[in-house]
Structures are given as C-alpha cells and as structure tokens.
Design brief:
The protein has 1 helix and no strands. The chain is mostly helical.
C-alpha cells in the first residue's frame, strides 16, 4: 500500500478501537454484492464495407 487507508480526524483511538473499526468496514465491504462485469455490446450484423464512391448509383 502506498498510504494510510484510514485517517482519524478527531480523537485518539487506541489499537483495539482501530481494529474494531477495520473489522466493521471489512464486513460491510464483504457483504456488498460484487460489481457487475461491464460488457460492450457487439453489433448483430457488422457494417459491410462500402467504397468511397458508394454515394454513386450502382450500374
């Protein structure tokens, strides 16, 4: 880890109180459902390649 995970703003908790806080936060995180995996939709029919002159009438 690069830095502190918990920052105490007020008071001076002892090691037991900090340990209890970490246990509660870990339990809350574990109880949350996993985040759904994001899938990118794919087109059903990929676009057919058209040449640059596709605006012209076909013969």
């Amino acid at each position: 880890m690069s830095g502190p995970v918990v920052h105490v703003l007020r008071g001076e908790p002892d090691e037991t109180e900090l340990a209890a806080l970490i246990v509660v936060l870990s339990a809350i995180r574990a109880a949350q459902p996993p985040e759904p995996e994001v899938t990118v939709p794919r087109p059903r029919h990929p676009a057919r390649f058209e040449a640059a002159t596709s605006w012209r009438t076909r013969r």
